[in-house]
Amino acid sequence: MWWLLAAVGLGIPLVLTAMPEFAMFAIGAGAAALTAAVGGGVVPQFLVFVAVSVALLVFVRPIAYRQLQKGPTVRTGIEALTGATAVVQEKVDGEGGRIKLNGEIWSARALNPGSVYEPGQQVDVVEIQGATALVV
Fold this sequence. Notes:
Elements: H1 2-17, H2 20-37, H3 42-69, H4 78-81, E1 85-90, E2 98-101, E3 104-110, E4 122-129, E5 132-135
Parallel strand pairs: 3-5
Antiparallel strand pairs: 1-2, 1-4, 2-3, 4-5
Helix pairs in contact: 1-2, 2-3
């Protein structure tokens, strides 16, 4: 019973601080409670608590911190426009033109100087250079 109280007690700071270490200690306390439930003595309970907690800290903690430090995988800004599909509004060639990209009118230029895209045609944005989209 004490191990379950310890697990709940360790869960409270986990929620308040979002530190995964508290979850690892709470899981260790839960494992010790299971050891007590199957009839293990105080020493095996403590050893199970320590072994499970340390194993989680050594093996799971680095993985958890890598996931937390990755950051968002959502592309924003100019990076989000690269690879998008646009519709030609005014003829686009190697000299310039206009496209409608994400509901906005952009200056555009054909990536290949010999290519010409007519109004209504769909093009793919390859790169953004300043306020000009390079399209294919």
